[in-house]
Amino acid sequence: MSPISDIRAEAARLRARFEAAGARAVDCTILQPAGTLLDLYGEDIRARAYTTSDPAQGEVMLRPDFTVPVVQMHSDSGAEVARYTYAGEVFRRQEEHPERPSEYIQVGYELFDGSAPEAADAEVFALIHAQLDGLGLRAATGDIGILTTAVAGLKTSDRRKAALMRHIWRPRRFRALLDRFSGKTPVPPTRAALLAAEDPMARAGVQIGLREATEIAARIAALRADATEPPLSREEVALIDALLNVRESCCFALQHLRDIAVDLPAIANAVDRLAVRIEAIDIRGIDPQTVEFEGSYGRTSLEYYDGFVFGFHAPARPGLPPVASGGRYDALTLRLGNGQGRPAVGGVIRPDILLTLREGRA
């Protein structure tokens, strides 16, 4: 790994380039209120972030990223259009990848502009692409919005749609729900017995835990209601699978998605927006044939991405995290802005990985 002084110098260089593109340099405190992040992600965030207690602020977290505090800062400013850049340490637990550092420097560019979302997506993607030229990286993109519109268009109950939406960023859980809702996975014997019992609480014993009896009863009622739902059709599940399995250059992927949209019309508008984005990327001098589109890309990223997502990977170093990544997070700005959404897209670069790759090519 490069010396920290070299990494900081590279971070400063990258931030200066983003400033030259019109971004205002900002900074955010390292200690962030835990409540905001817990409200956004639930208890899952504890597995990824470092928490501690402060006598004045209560529970706080070491900054896991810059996006949330930058959104809050922008919302407080009242501005409509703005560009920001930053550079600094972020802290993330690496239980699944203990070989990776839990503290590293991140340089980012965030664009708040709802007038032409696809053009804004292309601007951020192209700016980051330009910083990585000559490294032979694989540019991968996706669109969480296509998958969410596909789920919204399924012929099933709102309860089941909400469950699938909630687990879009957890691929295994999403698959398990699809299999259960389509009848592919049988109902577990314990659940079948619970649903069949005249009084499920009759032999429950002493109640422990934080859930009230009314909450337990409501959950059982919901499970019973779900058990009466007709299964998802095999055709709809096959269409979702076809969407998730798309992995081609952007232009070929667009053709494939248009074919899927014939039988799954709910995604048609989202696919049209993808076409506009591909054209905007082309206008900025990047050949769309060199950019991959993956239907499932971005589903293991942070959950605030709800549209365009991208990443730059080193094919010769598959063990490395993405050199750069980012995406659109409109819903996050709506939630943190108290209902006043300011559409936004952003991306980050890891200067430490960038230097590692350059040294390998020297």
Automatic annotation (TrEMBL):
Keywords: Glycosyltransferase, Transferase. SUPFAM superfamilies: Class II aaRS and biotin synthetases. Pfam families: tRNA-synt_His. InterPro entries: aa-tRNA-synth_II/BPL/LPL, HisRS-like_core, HisRS/HisZ. One of its GO terms (molecular function) is glycosyltransferase activity. This is ATP phosphoribosyltransferase regulatory subunit. The keyword Lipoprotein does not apply. Residues 9-348 form the Class II Histidinyl-tRNA synthetase (HisRS)-like catalytic core domain. It comes from the Bacteria. It comes from Mesobacterium hydrothermale.
